[in-house]
Amino acid sequence: MANDTQNDRDGSDGKSGNPLSNDAALSARLGRLDQRLSTLKAGHKAETDDAERQDNNATARASALARGFRLSSELVAGVVVGAAIGWGIDYAFSTSPWGLIVFFLLGFAAGVINLMRAAGVVSDVHERLKDPDRDQ
Amino acid sequence: MDPIHQFQIKNLFTVGTFGGHEIAFTNSAAYMVVAVALTALLMLGGTAARRLVPGRMQSMAELSYEFVAEMLRSTAGEHGMKFFPLVFSIFMFVFISNIVGIIPYTFTVSSHIIVTVALALLVFLTVIIYGISKNGLKFFKLFVPSGIPMVILPLVVAIEIISFFSRPVSHSVRLFANMLAGHITLKVFASFVTMLGALGVAGIAGAALPLALTVALTALELLVAALQAYVFAILTCIYLNDAIHPGH
Fold first, then answer.
1. How many other CB atoms are found less than 10 A from the CB of residue A95?
2. Is the pTM of this model over 0.95?
3. Which of A69, A89, B82, B241 gets the highest tally of CB atoms within 10 A of its CB?
4. Cβ pair B198, A118 in contact under 8 A
5. Complex ipTM > 0.90
């Protein structure tokens, strides 16, 4: 908040081109404002800290439940999709049962990767793919 | 007493026939219309007054906007905001229909896998089509991690592709299974109350236990309904992020 006002003031200052003494007075006033804001904020924070902690606890519990729901289906989905792809390959090329076997195992690996990614144990796809030379 | 009975699809009236198939307006469709109407009522009614200091309705509308916008910005970045209408529509539809479904004698739209699969495929196809149209072939970098030795690259790519295709499955099954299981559990415990109640005085005294549990489960179901809508929406955001920044 304090930063915003500072930026605003600086911007308008540069446009109007006030003398240096004005600048010094302004920065002194801004410093005082900063100090007052930070003390106010500290007081406010101490007041709301208790309520905030309770709130955080509740949201943490809710999001843990959400995470649990998410993780449970990730593994199953990987295995099911792998098996489905394998069965489809067997059906199309009559290579039974090798497609099902191979892709079932691959699907299990994919499910475990899904699970670990969802849990944040391994880094996400784009984190891992991050290339310094490619933009974005 | 049949706990599955609540999920039965009934034809309310027939709209017409299309290629020999009957296009029926079912109770599921009716509750979808209810969810959309309630969302429209909340958003249009809430923003009609346009007060600087919002009233109750406007506060609710603004809160739901801020919630989804914040979720989208934090997961998909500022570029993701072009998908705000999609994510907001999905979130509000799932959220309102789940909440409506908790009311006794109503129908839960998302307890049918065809509905959640349709929503998940909508997101999945949006990711693929937008990702390819925006990034071209770079989109397929999603499946090819850099810095992997050539020997195991085919294996890793196969796993990544399976992992990608398992997304709509887990995305849709999670919402569907949670709603279905929750509503069946509620129904089973509620039917214990009537069964025990038929046994006389001792039964009525005993029925207090499942009744208390039913009340507690209803509260849990309310949490699950909101949570699953949130999970569905945040996964939509995460998947859209892949379409926007595939090789990020």
1. 14
2. no
3. B241
4. no
5. no
